[in-house]
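Late entry, written up from scratch paper. The run itself happened at the end of the previous shift, but nothing got recorded in the book at the time, so transcribing now.
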Amino acid sequence: MKKILITLIATLLITSNLSAKDMEMTDTNGTTYKVQAQGNEFKIEGMEGKVVFIEFFGLQCPACRKAVPHLVNLQDKYRDKLQIMAIEVQKNDIDPIKAYREEHGINYITLSNYDVGSVARYVMEKSGWQGAIPFIVAIDSKGQVQFAQAGLMPEELLGKYVEEFSK
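Output as recorded:
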């Protein structure tokens, strides 16, 4: 009986870790995206077949400001293969994020930490992210997470990743 109980508990624990996590996030324009994550998969409704870079940034972060022109260039260059989604994590409301987007000519999706539900927490738990920004999560065109990294990344390298991850 004890062996059966231990097996049942182990099965429940394994099954709960394998179950998909359904989440939602809403961008600063009010568009809501359904997100399904399981294991190394991270699928965002409407992004099927595209490479997705999820960038965690802050309005007051100098390194994040340096990254913007490079991300704008990448979004322009790879508009059919790439979608950048930037989540502001310094607890700003939508209006300051919209103003920042306008001021810097941002052509990719922006989101407030307040409107991403459990997505940021999920990424933190799965990647070991400690809050350093900028922080990027790269998802290939099949919805598989390829890497997560803190710090600025060269535009050329990110472009190579778009090419590689879109195959």
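The beta strands are 21-26, 32-38, 41-44, 51-57, 82-88, 109-112, 135-139, 145-150.
(Scratch paper discarded after transcription.)
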